[in-house]
Amino acid sequence: MVAVAEVARPHGVTGEVRLRVYNLESDLLLGRPPIVLRLPDGSRRPDRLTSVRRVEGAMLARLDSARDRTAVEALRGAVVEVPRSALGEPGDGEVYHCDLEGCAVRAGVALVGRVARVASYPTCDALVVQRPDGGTIEVPLTDAFVARIDVVGELIELSSLPE
Questions:
Q1: Which of 60, 77, 88, 114 could disulfide-pair with 40, CB 3.0 to 4.6 Å?
Q2: How far is Cα 29 from Cα 106, in angstroms, rounded to an integer?
């Protein structure tokens, strides 16, 4: 399952929910794929999007399980997840952040660590790499640092390390 949005807050009194979508350019949720809600307590439950529409900076949706403002309020902070298969295949030269998580990161023959997550910053995305000693390092996801990404082989080769 891949996290694609969060329940931000109720919208109105009839059960509509404002979703903070991680990729505002994506049309994925407009197609109403199967979803799972990861609730703030860590539990998960399947749900269904009954309607979805774009608004400035977010999406508004109705969930099968939340039919009024009180029910939506209880979902505040829940994460909306979709099956990885719903994403389709990335374009040439593109990768999904979720496919990078868990990849080994090497600089030459030395193991730097494994990708714990990808952080998004205004200037670029960065690999957050969990080092074998327990520390972390952030590596900008740019050609200056990343020489090759092999998603199938779960390997990222670096051309250099950040200082």
A1: 77
A2: 35
Say if domain 2-87 classifies as CATH 2.40.30.60.
yes
Q: Which CATH superfamily is domain 97-158 in?
A: PRC-barrel domain (2.30.30.240)
0.90 surpassed by pTM: no
Amino acid symbol at 26 = S
Q: What is 147-163 written as a DSSP string?
A: EEEETTTTEEEES----
Q: If you search the block for the tokens 């900008």, which residue do you land on?
A: 140
Tens-digit pLDDT profile for residues 128-145: 999 999 999 999 999 999
Residue type, 73: E
Give span(s): CATH 2.30.30.240, the chain. 97-158
Q: Where in the chain is the domain with CATH 2.40.30.60?
A: 2-87
- Say which residue the tokens 């972390």 belong to: 136
- Residue 39 corresponds to which amino acid? L
